[in-house]
Backbone:
């Protein structure tokens, strides 16, 4: 099986999926805009060949390059797990007559209005929503949706340019910040807990599921720098409180006609138990969530994905042994990391349950916490039982401090 992997080494997790393809027995050609010597070793070692293009955004040039590649050696499949180039990958598939998501099937995963229209048509509960391209349309949408509401880009990521408005005065204050966004979704604000529903599928069948809970909701972690965001992969997917979310997730996959690969959905659970769709991507979750899924199961979801898309099945059954939580840290102060506080005590107390400590070293410049959920580093803890997992995660969130100056 010859697989063309778009952007095989960037973002960093792509290298692990590329390696997964090689481990699943595929011959992998990479195509990306990273210079060859910038490829992470995991990707470089897994690739039979790497084609370097100046820009993946130059769609016509990339398509011509790939047609030429296909003349030289058969391409059986095109894969891309990086959101900005999923439509490009779909176009290449259509060009080469290969199976997998078409452009028309990919667009609803990128355009959150189209996505919700299809789910509405399937009878699934989405937030009331309307799309708007002008200030006038935003006001008209707000009139229909009511307050509190959310305004966000139709193709946003990382909660960028996403705002809550509790009143028309709030909305008025927000509008100038949205001037550079061509089209927004205006949505009913759903007061709820927030979860993911992630799957690997083959032939339209769900082979494996995962659910994470976010603590707190992503929008809050985007507003307050002092928060240490937690992503908690739950061990017990049989929990009665999760069943409506699982059903919603499976129904969303059916409604969008997704068949093969990773999906990452977000959904809300209100205090009265009602579940509401948030969004879905035809790709894995980012921010090292796949690592958290691996720690929850002792499995390798990178290779499991590759097996699913090349063989239509996953070779080893995946069993959930643990709850696993990532805790992301943001240092206090600007500039470079000067030290940690509380780490030794936390490791003394919880060490056996701590499976990853990946903090920026002293002397490293701080990362932009608004641009990357990873922040200045992360810790992963796990435990078979939920309360101790949550307790440990909360302690790392509260008692581990990074300082910068
Ligand atoms: N209708 C809504 N009601 C309540 N909160 C919302 C709503 N829409 C978005 N949010 C909040 O804003 C966050 C970001 O919105 P959303 O997930 O749609 O966009 P995103 O920027 O694509 O996120 P991601 O980083 O997951 O790609 C959500 O996780 C949620 O906390
Ligand atoms: Mg989201």
Residues:
């Amino acid at each position: 099986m010859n697989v063309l992997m778009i952007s095989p080494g960037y973002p960093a997790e792509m290298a692990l999926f590329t390696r997964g393809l090689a481990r699943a027995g595929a011959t992998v050609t990479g195509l990306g805009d990273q210079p060859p010597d910038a490829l992470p070793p995991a990707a470089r070692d897994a690739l039979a060949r790497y084609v370097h293009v100046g820009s993946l955004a130059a769609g016509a040039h990339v398509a011509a390059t790939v047609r030429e590649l296909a003349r030289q050696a058969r391409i059986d499949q095109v894969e891309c797990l990086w959101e900005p180039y999923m439509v490009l990958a779909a176009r290449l598939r259509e060009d080469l007559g290969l199976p997998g998501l078409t452009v028309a099937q990919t667009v609803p995963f990128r355009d959150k209005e189209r996505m919700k229209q299809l789910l509405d048509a399937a009878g699934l509960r989405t937030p009331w929503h309307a799309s708007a391209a002008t200030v006038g349309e935003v006001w008209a949408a707000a009139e229909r949706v009511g307050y509190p509401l959310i305004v966000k880009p139709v193709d946003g990521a990382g909660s960028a340019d996403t705002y809550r408005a509790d009143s028309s005065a709030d909305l008025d204050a927000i509008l100038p910040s949205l001037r550079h966004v061509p089209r927004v979704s205006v949505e009913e604000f759903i007061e709820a807990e927030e979860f993911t529903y992630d799957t690997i599928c083959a032939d339209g069948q769900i082979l494996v599921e995962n659910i994470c809970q976010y603590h707190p909701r992503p929008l809050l972690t985007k507003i307050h720098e002092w928060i240490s965001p937690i992503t908690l992969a739950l061990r017990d997917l049989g929990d009665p409180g999760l069943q409506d979310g699982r059903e919603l997730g499976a129904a969303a996959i059916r409604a969008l006609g997704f068949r093969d690969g990773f999906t990452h959905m977000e959904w809300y659970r209100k205090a009265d138990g009602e579940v509401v769709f948030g969004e879905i991507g035809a790709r894995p979750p980012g921010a090292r969530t796949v690592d958290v899924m691996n720690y929850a199961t002792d499995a390798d979801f990178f290779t499991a994905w590759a097996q699913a898309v090349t063989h239509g099945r996953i070779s080893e059954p995946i069993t959930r042994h643990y709850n696993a939580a990532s805790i992301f840290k943001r240092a206090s102060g600007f500039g470079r990391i000067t030290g940690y506080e509380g780490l030794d005590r936390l490791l003394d107390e919880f060490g056996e349950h701590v499976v990853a400590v990946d903090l920026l070293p002293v002397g490293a410049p701080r990362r932009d916490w608004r641009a990357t959920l990873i922040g200045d580093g992360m810790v992963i803890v796990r435990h078979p039982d939920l309360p101790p997992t949550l307790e440990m995660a909360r302690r790392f969130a509260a008692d581990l401090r990074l300082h910068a100056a």
Q: What stands out?
A: The mean pLDDT is 97.
